[in-house]
Write a structure and sequence with these properties.
By secondary structure, this protein is of the alpha+beta class. It folds into three domains: 167 residues; 53 residues, Roll (SH3 type barrels), CATH 2.30.30; 84 residues, Alpha-Beta Plaits (2-Layer Sandwich), CATH 3.30.70. 60% of the residues lie in helices and 16% in strands. The protein is built from twelve helices and ten strands. The strands form three sheets. It has a five-stranded antiparallel β-sheet. Strands 6-8-7 form a three-stranded antiparallel β-sheet. Strands 9-10 form a two-stranded antiparallel sheet.
């Protein structure tokens, strides 16, 4: 007589139940010992969780608060399954009961792992969002997108692990998910690239809302960081909307993070300047720079002989980051140089040409000779 699928399943269930019942009836001492071990493991784990909750305060914004969130997401069903699988290592239950306990443990482990991973990732993101109130709105938007992505990934992995433990062939499912993921990724490549660029901006923090940045050949102030675009207010007044990927592909300089500003002034003086004045010039420039508030002298050095000047380079630092302070300091030093040069009798050089006259015998005549002779006669 042929049995149907339900009849065969019922027969296997009856056989397994009978085997378990016989073990419970015949080996009651071993059953009692296993139960004691399971209860002991359960109580020990519950005690550890209780201690962890006491040591980790709720609402802490640091790592202790993150650990408390992970502890709070621990399922009691997982503790029961862990105690049961621990008890099976000290007793020898029948095969059907051992397989049931093992399956229960794997299923609860997959669910618990998904909960822990989700809480850990989202907790780190929430902690970063609380750390910076300036980007709270942008981080809140990013948190919503990341929550969806994390939930999809962790629960999909948990489902695959559970199905595989139940004997389902997940090879085709994993392959299908891989092909589908590639297709979705190719179709939404631009969107995902901008999304991950936005996450990079929000978490790596090359700049924040309110920072003045220089990118490419433009300078502007960041007004909003979105999941696809960043809005920048240009110095000329208009608002620029740039894709996050396009913005990060350029070299970005964050002008707000300037701690001090370097100023370079090049100047030339005439060749008729006396050597002792040339020797004293670096010291004079140092004294001038140090007399201006918020300025630190770096160097004043001779750089070369120009076509019509002896060239120098003056370098100093303005020790406050504000642009207005740097402009004022540069003006003060420049005007001070003009005044000090007038006191020292030093003249700034400017492009000049001197024409020399040749005598009948071919000798060069100094053009200043006739001028000096005329002055002496007068």
């Amino acid at each position: 007589m042929l049995l149907g699928p339900l009849d065969r399943a019922q027969a296997r269930l009856d056989a397994s139940a009978g085997e378990v019942w016989r073990w419970l009836a015949q080996d009651s001492g071993e059953v009692l010992y296993g139960a004691v071990v399971a209860v002991g493991i359960f109580l020990a784990l519950e005690l550890l969780l209780l201690i962890a909750r006491r040591l980790l305060p709720r609402g802490d914004e640091g790592w202790r608060g993150l650990a408390r969130g992970v502890v709070d997401r621990t399922l009691q069903l997982f503790i029961v399954a862990l105690a049961a699988i621990g008890a099976t290592n000290v007793v020898a239950p029948p095969g059907p009961l051992l397989r049931l306990v093992s399956s229960l443990f794997v299923i609860t482990l997959a669910i618990q792992g998904a909960l822990w991973l989700r809480e850990l990732v989202l907790g780190i993101i929430r902690r970063r969002a609380r750390a910076d109130e300036e980007d709270k709105h942008a981080l809140g938007s990013a948190l919503g997108v990341i929550s969806v992505l994390v939930n999809v990934v962790v629960w999909l992995l948990a489902a695959i692990l559970i199905l595989d433990n139940l004997g389902v062939n997940v090879t085709a499912l994993v392959a299908g998910l891989g092909v589908g993921g590639i297709a979705i990724g190719l179709a939404a490549q631009g969107i995902f690239s901008d999304l991950f660029a936005a996450l990079s901006i929000l978490f790596d923090r090359p700049f924040r809302v309110g920072d003045t940045i220089s990118y490419g050949t433009s300078v502007g102030t960041v007004e909003h960081i979105g999941l696809k675009t960043t809005r920048i207010r240009a110095l000329s007044g208009e608002q620029l909307v740039m894709a996050n990927t396009q913005l990060l592909n350029q070299q970005v300089a964050n002008l707000r993070r300037i701690e001090e500003r370097r100023v370079l002034l090049t100047f030339g003086i005439i060749y008729q300047t006396k050597p002792d004045v040339l020797d004293a010039l670096p010291g004079e420039m140092q004294a001038l720079v140090e007399s201006v508030p918020n300025c630190r002298f770096d160097r004043c050095v001779f750089t070369g002989f120009g076509a019509s000047s002896i060239d120098f380079e003056l370098v100093f630092f303005v020790t406050v980051p504000e642009l207005a302070a740097m402009l004022a300091a540069r003006q003060a030093v420049g005007f001070g140089m003009v005044r000090r040069f007038a006191e020292l009798g030093v003249e700034f050089a400017y492009p000049t040409q001197t024409s020399f006259t040749a005598a009948p015998d071919g000798r060069m005549i100094d053009p200043t000779y006739f001028t000096e002779r005329r002055l002496s006669q007068d």
